[in-house]
């Protein structure tokens, strides 16, 4: 019955073994200075075992000074060997897996208890960044993309979702009066120039470039609204954004929604708001429709809440061409072997949406599944 999910896919000049995507999931388990730890390696080796077609490595910060998570991974020269090892370990187990590095800056979501909270917009929390500082952050994204390529990754995700800096700059509420704010032209400059430079700098022409966006963040003046004072969803700017991504010749867009720190159930539906997943299906289909007749591929999000029903829904989304790839987040922690187990008819540990992993992230401790992973089950009890 499950057929389409196991079919090969195309993305840029690459082929994927199937349509399963392991979405980026922060583990908050880096070693000192944001370097790759053994816990990080173990997590991705498990995903490699699971035969996911695409593995998106969690948010990697372009800076050690503005972090949302105390033990976030930082992609810089000092940590490069660790990232090379990470890629090698995944490829040793699963040479076909496409590995994408998500690069980010936490901006106003940076935690002021251990990091500097900085803002794009005078309407956001944190110290307002100067024109030159934003230029330097953009250079940081470009440099990280180069490091990702050097580490052996197959591509990057220029994170532009969930309220992080890449999203904050796109919002109508970015009312800065310099070249980074106000007009649509200015608000998209960070993305436009960053992507153009990354494309021009890449050494391998099959190195994938894409980004993750929140179609609607569910907050006044944020992504998916039409003006700084508007709350109602209006996808006009998101259509323009998708068209811009295509004009920039990006290979894919990963569709998400919400701001986990502010509108969490929109990003990751929980039992009491399970039907939120319907918005994700709608946004994904909308993106696919907007990008029809282009080469860009679309990845959908938030399938974990559907448990075993996710496969049927995924098949329908794929067969109707409403998406190209299907992404799971929390499910990758509950059972990193899911695609392989499904293929071989083995029983799967389905995510219960207990929010344990999110609570760990909020508590600033290592993140894992407290329901099915013995290590994290114990660790959670010790840290309660
Ligand atoms: C603990 C945790 C960590 C996450 N880390 C990231 C991240 O690094 N980057 C990102 O874009 N989304 C992140 N997300 C969002 C997930 O990728 C995903 O979009 C969300 O969980 C909804 O999908 P699901 O319902 O399949 O879990 C995270 C979510 C959780 C719960």
Automatic annotation (TrEMBL):
NADH:flavin oxidoreductase/NADH oxidase N-terminal domain sequence ranges: 5-346
Protein's UniProt keywords contain Secreted: no
Classification via InterPro entries: Aldolase_TIM, NADH_flavin_oxidoreductase, OxRdtase_FMN_N
Keyword line: Flavoprotein, Oxidoreductase
A Gene Ontology molecular function term of the record: oxidoreductase activity
Protein name: NADH:flavin oxidoreductase/NADH oxidase N-terminal domain-containing protein
Protein source organism: Bacteroides clarus
């Amino acid at each position: 019955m499950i057929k389409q999910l196991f079919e090969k896919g195309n993305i840029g000049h690459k082929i994927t073994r199937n349509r399963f995507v392991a979405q980026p999931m922060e583990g908050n388990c880096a070693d000192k200075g944001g370097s790759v730890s053994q816990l990080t390696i173990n997590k991705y080796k498990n995903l490699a075992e699971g035969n996911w077609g695409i593995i998106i490595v969690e948010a990697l910060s372009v800076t050690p000074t503005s972090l949302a998570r105390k033990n976030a991974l930082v992609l810089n020269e000092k940590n490069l060997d660790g990232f090379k090892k990470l890629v090698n370990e995944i490829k040793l187990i699963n040479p076909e897996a496409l590995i994408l590095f998500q690069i980010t800056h936490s901006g106003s979501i940076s935690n002021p208890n251990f990091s500097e909270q900085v803002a794009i917009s005078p309407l956001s929390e944190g110290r307002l960044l100067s024109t030159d500082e934003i230029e330097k952050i953009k250079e940081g994204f470009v440099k990280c993309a180069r490091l990702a390529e050097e580490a052996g990754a197959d591509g990057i995700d220029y994170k532009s979702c969930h309220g992080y800096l890449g999203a904050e700059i796109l919002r109508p509420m970015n009312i800065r009066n310099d070249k980074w704010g106000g007009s649509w032209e200015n608000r998209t400059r960070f993305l436009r120039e960053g992507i153009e430079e990354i494309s021009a700098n890449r050494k391998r022409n099959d190195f994938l470039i894409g980004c993750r966006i929140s179609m609607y963040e569910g907050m006044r003046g944020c992504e998916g609204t039409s003006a700084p004072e508007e709350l109602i969803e209006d996808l006009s700017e998101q259509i323009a954004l998708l068209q811009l991504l295509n004009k920039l010749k990006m290979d894919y867009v990963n569709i998400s929604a919400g701001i986990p720190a502010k509108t969490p159930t929109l990003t990751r539906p929980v039992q009491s708001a399970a039907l939120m997943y319907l918005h994700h299906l709608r946004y994904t289909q909308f993106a696919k429709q907007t990008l029809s007749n282009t080469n860009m591929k679309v990845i959908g999000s938030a399938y974990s809440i559907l448990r075993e029903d996710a496969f049927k829904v995924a098949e329908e989304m794929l067969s109707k061409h409403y998406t190209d790839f299907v992404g799971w987040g929390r499910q990758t922690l509950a059972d990193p072997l899911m695609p392989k187990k499904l293929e071989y008819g083995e029983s799967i540990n389905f995510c219960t949406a207990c929010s344990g992993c999110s609570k760990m992230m909020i508590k600033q401790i290592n993140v894992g599944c407290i329901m099915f992973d013995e290590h994290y089950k114990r660790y959670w009890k010790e840290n309660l």
